[in-house]
Write a structure and sequence with these properties.
InterPro entries: LysR-type_TF, LysR_HTH_N, LysR_subst-bd, WH-like_DNA-bd_sf, WH_DNA-bd_sf. With 309 residues, the protein is an alpha/beta fold. The chain is built from twelve helices and twelve strands. It has helices at 2-10, 15-26, 29-36, 40-54, 70-90, 111-128, 144-150, 194-199, 215-222, 236-245, 254-257, 289-302; strands at 59-62, 65-68, 104-109, 133-138, 155-159, 168-175, 177-182, 201-205, 228-233, 250-253, 263-266, 275-281. It has a five-stranded mixed sheet with strand order 4-3-5-12-6. The radius of gyration is 32 Å and the shape is rod-shaped. It starts with a helix and ends in a 7-residue tail after the last helix.
């Protein structure tokens, strides 16, 4: 049966369905032609084609015009539903109205991107789309592509150099690293040498857990130097409390510690590469009006750099 249906569809000009619907409504070829803005001969040709495809006369001469056959009568309701469904499929995409939308977005983020991207964007999102909901899930870098493809997440925030290929992306900002310690740290009141930097007790953020080496250590290794890393933690948010209560220091993204009370930051004595933070999403969501709106609100909150891609 599915094969027969597909064969019928391949042989059918969908315009014939509209013609049939109008003919069943008017029961008159001339009036149907006027409604369809076609000539009467053209409608007659289409009726003949419909009779051939459906293997039924469909409309027969009667005392008061044409009369539908039993087959034609049975087609009225399903035909109307089919044409309505087709019109909905082909209708222009409706504009997204955030003020009335009831939509749930799922976003994958680290505690760093939560602090630097989502928290600044949240007031605007709540004000403009009060009935929307936002679900923030822990970023799993190796799963971003698969999660976006399956629709498990709508957006993800990650560094450009580690972003998976095949996803749409938009640059959010460039980030740099600074050396951070508690305000009044004895080593921060004068210019620090590279040797002094290496002798400090450092805390490192290791998202995978337990690592004692990062981008700073890679930069030092090129100069055949090594720092003292005495504490490894999985989250940036934990580092703040550590720095406030000890003389440990940390190399942290500048945006993360901007304006944090009790902490001070200085330029490190080691040349450190920064990174680009990007927003990631799948092609399946690229043209969705609500998704476009969400992306634009986030970008407008944090001053974007670079074009959409």
């Amino acid at each position: 049966m599915p094969g027969i249906v597909m064969d019928n569809l391949r042989n059918l000009d969908l315009n014939l369905l509209r013609t049939l619907a109008v003919l069943l409504s008017e029961l008159n070829v001339t009036r149907a032609a006027e409604r369809l803005h076609l000539s009467q001969p053209s409608v007659s040709v289409q009726l003949a084609r419909l009779r051939e495809i459906l293997k039924d006369p469909l409309l027969l001469p009667g005392p008061r015009g044409m009369q539908p056959t039993a087959r034609a009568q049975s087609l009225r309701e399903p035909l109307a539903k089919a044409l309505l469904a087709l019109s909905e499929v082909l209708a222009p995409i409706q504009a997204f109205d955030p003020s009335t939308a009831r939509v749930t977005w799922k976003i994958a983020a680290t505690d760093y991107s939560e602090s630097t991207v989502l928290i600044p964007a949240l007031p605007g999102l709540r004000r403009l789309a009060p009935d929307s909901r936002l679900a923030v899930v822990q970023l799993a870098p190796r799963s971003i592509g698969r999660q976006c493809e399956r629709g498990e997440i709508d957006l993800a925030f990650h560094s450009a150099d580690e972003a998976p290929s095949g996803l749409r992306h938009r640059s959010l900002f460039m980030e740099k690293y600074v050396l951070v310690g508690r305000r009044g740290h004895p080593r921060f009141n004068r210019k620090m040498s590279l040797t002094q930097f290496c002798k400090l007790d450092h805390v490192i953020v290791s998202p995978d857990g337990g690592g004692f080496s990062g981008v700073t250590d890679a930069a030092l290794a090129e100069a055949e130097l090594q720092r003292r890393v005495v504490l490894s933690v999985p989250h940036f948010t934990f580092v703040r409390e550590v720095l406030l209560s000890t003389d440990l220091v940390a190399m942290l993204p500048a945006r993360l510690v901007r304006g944090m009370p009790g902490l001070q930051s200085v330029a490190p004595p080691v040349d450190m590469p920064g990174f680009e933070m990007v927003m990631l999403w799948h092609e399946r969501s690229h043209l969705d009006p609500s998704h476009q709106w969400l992306r634009d609100v986030i970008v407008s909150t944090i001053n974007p750099v670079g074009p959409r891609t």
